[in-house]
Amino acid sequence: MLDVTRPAFGHNWRVAIEFSERIRRIPVYPAAGAYAGSAPPVRLASNESPYPPIQPVIDAITRSLAGLNRYPDPTNALLRGRLAERYGVPAARIAIGNGSCDILLAAGEALLEPGAEVVYAWPSFSVYPHLSAASGARAIAVALDGEERHDLDAMLEQITVATRLVIVCNPNNPTSTAVALGQIKDFVERVPPYVCVILDEAYCEFNLLEDPDDSIELLEHHPNLVLLRTFSKVHGLCGLRVGFALCGSEDLPRAVDQVRQPFFCNALAQAAAIEALNHQDVVEDRVMRTIAERGAMEQGLRGLGLTPAESQANFCWFELPVERPEDAAERETQVMRGLEDRGVLVRGGSALGKQGALRVSYGTPEENVRFLAALAEVL
Question: Which of 49, 260, 286, 361 is placed for a possible disulfide with 315 were both Cys, Cβ 3.0 to 4.6 Å?
């Protein structure tokens, strides 16, 4: 409640600015370091693509530069139209965002409030706790199973009449694991229709369990389902921030647009994404390169005595060997520091939900060889 006993502004007094209660609740996003200054040569910390945008995408961005004195299309009509053609989902059921996180946070604002509940697995994407903290809703984090995968049955048990949103990250960030589409289908069918289900598929192109497009068919049977995707990963457009959601109804796109600022997707991002959709052959090539590096990395890690989770993403996840569980955090810090001293940047599990683990993106073959050599030295 506002304190009306304070002296008038003309009085000579000093006091800190007071922020809302939710600012104290919202955790700080655990961004990777080394963005300022000279970054280590091998950046394997943020699940970025090691491959830059292709020339036609760069050309599309360049052509858009002359129009930067104008606002971007606030309806994202051309991009939504191209996505509709690509995925067979009506444009009115497609949401665009400043990265998929923008849509996710807007969905939290549109769906959640004090007294509501949101259910997600943990460890999972580190933005999910922001949704409950910002809205005042209750977060229910369900532990992964013994193989670092979503325990969908356990998540179903946590759904109540207060649940508004359930999030499944598949493949899961940070553990790189995925559950089969058949399990996802069974899960969605058992979720009450009043609950929005967001299937976060930021890494779906790298998932070999099934075709990435197979999940789209579920939208025709479940108006409460949302497939969240991005151009940041396989398309290599992290720096422009453009994501999208394929939805089972028009309700969510309309709702997220109501709670966001206008012009949330800039003109260069729209132009780049539209052009990127014309080059599915590039996507397939990058996926195959990544899968090759995934196999080489797994073999290298096992050669060091480590056991990575079964990756279906463009990164891997593994625990560091320790004699005592209480030493996990210290060991993680030591290894990360040793790698950074050798010019390699990775992510520590402490910031992502599990002490004593590392998440490592797959880079170029040369970068991955350098990481494995550095890790061998540090261990």
Answer: 361
Answer whether CATH 3.30.450.20 is correct for domain 55-276.
Answer: no
Q: Where in the chain is the domain with CATH 3.40.640.10?
A: 55-276
The first and second tokens of residue 171, run together, are: 């493949």
Examine the pLDDT at 14 and tell me if it is beyond 90.
no
Model pLDDT, residue 41: 87
What interhelical angle do 128-135 and 100-111 show, nearest 10? Answer: 30
Beta strands in the chain (DSSP E): 42-43, 94-97, 117-122, 138-143, 163-169, 196-200, 225-230, 243-247, 315-319, 344-345, 347-348, 357-361
The answer to whether 321 and 301 are in contact (CB under 8 A) is no
Model's pTM, two decimal places? 0.91
Report the interhelical angle of 280-303 vs 365-378 (nearest 10°).
20
What's the pLDDT tens digit per position in 255-292? 999 999 999 999 999 999 999 999 999 999 999 999 99
* pLDDT beyond 90 at 239: yes
- Is residue 47 within 8 A of residue 361, CB to CB? The reply is yes
> Where do the CATH 3.90.1150.10 domains begin and end in the chain?
33-51+280-378
* β-strand pairing of 243-247 with 94-97: antiparallel
Cα 168 to chain centroid, rounded? 11
